[in-house]
Amino acid sequence: MDPIEIFKALSNESRLQILHWLKEPEKHFKPHEGIDMRKTGVCVSQVTEKLHMTQSTASQYLSILQRAGLIKTERIGKFTYYTRDEEKIREIGDFLNNEI
């Protein structure tokens, strides 16, 4: 775990919002092509629509979160779906409790 990369990823309000939405995706996103959002995640077009940003910006934010290890991806057909990495998020909480 690289705490600096994680905290850089969390230093943007929109990226924090994405993580919040991904915690309970069914509350925040419309279903996409019959995908179980809780299990598989949400695609970039859903995030783009919710953020009211360009797809390129939303993709960049998701990429930053992924590189920090905060989200996981799954490719299905032509779409990539994003979910929170709950284990990594727990590790961050443990790090904060034990190291700071």
From TrEMBL:
Domain HTH arsR-type: 1-100
CDD domains associated with the record: HTH_ARSR
Molecular function as annotated in GO: DNA binding; DNA-binding transcription factor activity
Keyword Ligase: no
Keyword set, alphabetical order: DNA-binding, Transcription, Transcription regulation
Keyword DNA-binding annotated: yes
Entry-linked PROSITE patterns: HTH_ARSR_2
Protein name, entry field: YbzH
Source organism (scientific name): Paenibacillus mucilaginosus 3016
Lineage, top ranks: Bacteria, Bacillati, Bacillota, Bacilli, Bacillales
